[in-house]
User: Fold this.
Amino acid sequence: MRTGLVLFLCGLVLGKAAVIPNDCHTIDVLNGKLLYDNRVTYMYEYFPTDYKLQVKYEEVLRCQNITALINKGITVKELRYLWGIINYRVLSKMQAVLPLRHPSLSYVTELQLLFHELQKEQEVESDVILEILERLDRTEVKSVSPKALLDNCFRVLYALYEDECKLCNPRSEEEALCPPPATPTPSDYQRTYCES
Assistant:
């Protein structure tokens, strides 16, 4: 019940930020790259069993963190910018540990380019963001699987952009195309994208 309420409030707050059309195009391409099949193939199957990447605590941006940041007064525009910066950094760390011939390297590089493209239009200045970015260089590290990092990235993408960019989430590329969006109701905000 509490999760549903948080998702509902998150949906109401996040739905009020404007997204420029070019961002939606980049987000749509990013959404396709982050679909479930790609995350499993490139971030799980191609890595050694139980492989973990060392990342800072702030680099594990989950939907639960969004609510806390909204409560601190951060805007949706700032959240989108922060999400882009954090995931660009995480992808850079992945790229740094992958050998040149690793089958996931081109996938990680493509994602990184998309995040770079997205950031060009979204730069914002905020004391909250500056504080988080400063902490990124000071905090301790934790071990997280590459797939878990991209799973979080995908869920937050939906929390931040789903309604405005009309995103579609088939679990697998082999499943049918998503149906046209219906008129949203309050219960539509209680989706499972942000469940852990």
Summary: The longest strand covers residues 53-56. The longest helix spans residues 76-97. The radius of gyration is 16 Å.
